[in-house]
Every structure is written in structure tokens, then in C-alpha cells.
């Protein structure tokens, strides 16, 4: 199985949102400078600015919804509303929340423009332009594709478009004092240099996923932009070489089963893959703190491996041959156990 389609949808919607938001900012800057040509009259910029902004809101909302529904990062509604509170890359995800809320404020005040008055609406409108650099930081700091060549070209293209629009605005008539132009140009140049240096020394470096605040339980799961190498736990049983083919890499499956308490106080969790009942997992949890677990994986009733597992308070992790398995479990309303199983190559770079 491949990672959740929601994971791909959230990534795609985020990138499209950045492109559309860049277009909105560029058109807004050109409108403020009253730029126009015979081939592109000013009313066309006004119309495009309005409609592109609406489409950007739609894709932005889709990005948020799919990110919350995707089981990978375990985001909740609170994470999508309150910035910097998520356990997953809190700072960089928080920037995305701030950007979305600035855009939401613009939409709401635009709908209430007649009641709020032009001055309040214009103030909020200009503040909303801050959503673009904040969204850029969010994408670079959180984006799965940040280190890919095409994503870097996309980000560079968005940055270049905004810089060109600013250059037109600052060089146009009616900008104001020369000192104000120089100051705005200096701030823009300094911001561009700082963003470039931070990108090179931060998101483009190995180990950024951990430094950005990715929970350790997710560092080796599908979707991590910079997975950490994970060694086989001490004492783990070594499976025969053919076993690795029976536990495929790339799984992102829902599992369910039962939790049975034994006479000695230990528990046995019997789980099966909801979409592939031939894949079974049995987790033996001893009495006490449950730190020494034993995971047995079967395929069509035949044992694939039996190995020691670790539990970090949220995720059960084990290595079966050349495959690392991660289980996130919870109690279901019917008294059983449900959760998510993901697999990656053990020690993936």
C-alpha cells in the first residue's frame, strides 16, 4: 500500500495555494502602483486579483482540511486553529496557521466592508499581505518536498515574482520620499538574503526533520521529509532473509483487533490489517510498565518474524528483517483496539 491519498492531497493543495497567494500579492502590488498597459488594463488586474484570491482561499481551506484528516501527523482541529500548539513541527506549522487566519480575516472583513468602513478594511487588507512571507516560511519549514529541485524552483519563482512586483512599485511615481523607498528596498533585500541563508542552512540540511520538531515516532514513517536512521532495538530477533519480502515497505494501513488480559497480568493484542486480513500482528505486553514488548507478525497464518518492540508512549516500533514497523494504537468505542500500521525500510537514510 502507498501512503494515504490525503497526504498527497495536502501537499499538492499547499503548493497550489502558495502559487495562487503569490499571484494575489503580485496583482495587489501592481494595483497599488496603478501599473497598466494597453494589453493589460487596470480593471483586468482588479478582476484577476479578486478571483484568484477566491480560488486561493478554496485551495487553502482544502490544504488545511486534508492535513487534519491525514493520519500521518495526527493533527487535530485545535492544531489548525491555534498556532504553535501542535506536537508536529509547532513553529513552522504555526506559521501556516497564522497565514491562513490572516487570509480568513481578509475574507471576513471584505464581506463586512460596507459595515466596517473603508479605513478598517484597507488596514486589514494590507496586514493580509503578511500572509505571503509567513506562508513561504511554513512551506519551507514543513513541506515534504522542500529539498527537491522542482520545489526549490517553484519557491524561487514565487519569490522572484514578488520581488519584481515590489521593484515596479518602488520605482514608480507617487511612492513618496526617496528615504522611504531606500528603506523599503533595504528591508526587502535583507529579508531575501536572510530567507536564502536560512533555507540553505536549515531545511536543505540533513536532519532538518528532527530540528524542525518532528516527533521521534514519525521520523521514519512515510511522509517524513528527512527520516532519521533507526537501528534495530537491542535484543531484537534477527529474521531470515526471505522475511523482508513478506512484510512490504510502504504500508500505511488501518488495523483493528482485540486486547485480552491474561491471568498473569500481561496483555495480548491480536490485530489484523483491515484491508488485508492475511497480515496479522500479535503484541505481547507484559505486566508492569510495558517497556519490554514482543511483536509477532504473521502472513496467512505463517510466522514472518517475532521480535522485540519498543514503546515511546505513543508508538510501538519494531524491526522485522529489513522492514521497520510502527504502530499507533487506541481503544475503540466497541472495546477493541484500532490504529495505524506504517512500514519503511529499516535504517532508511
From TrEMBL:
What InterPro entries does the annotation carry?
A: Fe3_Rdtase_TM_dom
- Biased-composition ranges for Polar residues? 217-232
Q: Give the membrane topology.
A: Multi-pass membrane protein
Q: What is its main location?
A: membrane
Q: Where is the Ferric oxidoreductase domain?
A: 13-134
Key words, A-Z: Membrane, Transmembrane, Transmembrane helix
Q: State its location(s).
A: Membrane
Positions of transmembrane segments: 6-31, 51-72, 92-112, 124-143, 149-168, 180-200
A cellular component term from Gene Ontology for this protein is: membrane
Q: Where is this region: Disordered?
A: 217-244
The name on file for this protein is: Ferric reductase
Q: Which organism is it from?
A: Candidatus Aeolococcus gillhamiae
Q: What is the lineage of its organism?
A: Bacteria, Bacillati, Candidatus Dormiibacterota, Candidatus Dormibacteria, Candidatus Aeolococcales
